[in-house]
Specification:
The protein has 16 helices and twelve strands. It is of the alpha/beta class.
């Protein structure tokens, strides 16, 4: 039976003590203000060293990650992270840097920053890049602030609205709202792509731009992207690229060539940095030349054989993060890009597309695929074929846990009823994909013959089903003595 570490408390099992401090004026009550002192002894458990190690080692085995198995979260790109990336980020020359060091003492780090800006610009078809934003949504905010600064600099103050497709990631409307825009929803057509007629009808001189993911959250490439760009640009707006799905086109085509003006990149997705549990991340933003002056300051520039931060940017939106980005994440992504090279990045993308289409074809034999078209890196299935037995998408996801798999993204995108968004990435083998298919087929058979087995799942997990609404609204985040 798994116990909390507080339940493993044994009085006297850890007699560790600190030696007396032989210096003057060591009375803690005279060095720390009284309002910050505890009134009673801290209720920490006493546990021997070996039991503490065993406790946390056992906890670590419960955490599911890419190193444990397939992690098919659609729109998250949870790919395997080559360990050479971790090695590189831990090199003493990188790990021991301090952000306040003089620039002349960190020329290697500045060179890495500069080369990363150049490589991301090449990969995405942009002209200039900042590495400052801390994650994807943060990059979105910086990108939309750049768009806003561009319009305001042109005295185009009427543009107070932002168009967002109904299939967009939730961060898109949230970002636009945070920056101060009114959000206008653009409908999808029956094929799951942007409805051009609806887009035209909503484009006006009050619209700052369109935030778009390509491939979209259904895993489909917007085949009318050039016309979409023309509609937005002819109306005086800008086209923003949500880079969450860049893995589906990396090395094959570029947002800049499609007509996008601003792009953010999730280094922690596309370029393989672990990002489970809320971090770490990095969300660099790239722009076309007309918007370069508005990028956050500073940028890293090269002058002869030296590199430095450039703060002389009068039109900049200013800093969006202390110091300059999440350095360790940038080192890992830099290592990944350098390791694969241009040909390797393209091959990774092609394998991601191949794996996604293989799963789409195999799972389409037992699950409903609403847009059963050639997809890119991900696709959406539903539980419609199992609904007659009372089995839902959530039930299927919970049953997957019993088979040792992490569930895919569920109930997103919102435009698909009972959605399961599945993204295998390029790093999964044919054997692993086949095992996942067999598992999903077995669950479909259970739903038909023994639906309660699925409806009541999971059966083997440490925790069964919880009240998710209460857990979200009234989370219990610490242990309380009874």
């Amino acid at each position: 039976m798994n116990k909390l570490i507080f339940e493993k408390h044994v009085a006297g099992s850890n007699p560790f003590t600190l030696p007396d401090v032989d210096i003057a004026n060591t009375d803690i009550t005279t060095t720390i203000p009284s309002q910050f002192l505890r009134g009673e002894k801290t209720a920490l458990p006493e546990v021997s060293e070996v039991e503490a190690v065993r406790h946390f080692t056992e906890l670590s085995t419960r955490a599911y990650g890419v190193d444990s198995g397939l992690y098919p979260l659609g729109s998250c790109t949870m790919k395997y992270n080559p360990k050479i990336n971790e090695w590189a980020a831990r090199l003493p020359g990188w790990a021991g840097l301090h952000p306040c060091q003089p620039q002349e003492t960190v020329q290697g780090a500045l060179q890495l920053y500069y080369e990363m800006q150049v490589m991301l610009a090449e990969i995405t078809g942009m002209d200039s890049f900042t590495l400052q934003p801390a994650a994807g949504a943060h990059g979105e905010m910086a990108g939309v602030l750049i768009m806003k600064a561009y319009h305001q600099h042109r005295q185009d103050h009427r543009r107070t609205r932002m168009m967002v497709p109904d299939s967009a990631h939730g961060t898109n409307p949230a970002t636009a709202n945070v920056v101060g825009y009114e959000v206008i929803e653009v409908k999808s057509n029956p094929r799951g792509l942007v409805d051009l007629d609806d887009l035209r009808s909503k484009m006006s001189d009050e619209v700052a731009g369109l935030m778009l993911t390509n491939p979209n959250t259904l895993g489909l490439f917007e085949e009318d992207i050039e016309e979409i760009a023309a509609i937005v640009h002819e109306g005086g707006g800008l086209l923003y690229y949500d880079g969450a799905n860049l893995n589906g086109i990396m090395g094959v085509t570029r947002p800049g060539d499609m007509g996008f003006d601003v792009v953010h990149v999730n280094l922690h997705k596309t370029f393989s940095t672990p990002h489970g549990g809320g971090g770490p991340g990095a969300g660099p933003v790239g722009v076309k030349a007309p918007l370069a002056a508005f990028l956050p300051h500073p940028l890293v520039i090269r002058q002869g054989d030296a590199y430095r931060f450039d703060y002389d940017r009068p039109l900049s939106i200013g800093k969006v993060k202390n110091y300059y980005g999440n350095f360790g994440v940038i080192v890992k992504a830099y290592t990944y890009i350098k390791s694969l090279g241009a040909a390797g990045l393209k091959e990774a993308c092609q394998h991601a597309v191949l794996n996604a289409n293989y799963l789409r074809h195999q799972l389409g034999q037992v699950y409903h695929i609403p847009q059963d078209l050639l997809c890119k890196h991900e696709f959406v299935a539903t539980s419609r074929n199992q609904a007659d037995q009372g089995v839902s998408t959530l039930d299927i996801a919970k049953r997957l846990i019993d088979y040792g798999y992490h569930p895919p993204t569920v109930y997103f995108p919102l435009i698909v009823h009972e959605a399961m968004m599945i993204e295998p990435t390029e790093t999964e083998s044919r054997e692993r994909l086949d095992d996942f298919v067999q598992t999903m087929q077995a669950i479909a058979l259970e739903a038909k013959e023994m639906p309660d087995l699925v409806i009541l799942a999971p059966h083997d997990a440490a925790i069964r089903r919880v009240d998710e609404v209460t857990a979200a609204r009234k989370p219990i985040l610490k242990w309380e003595a009874q």
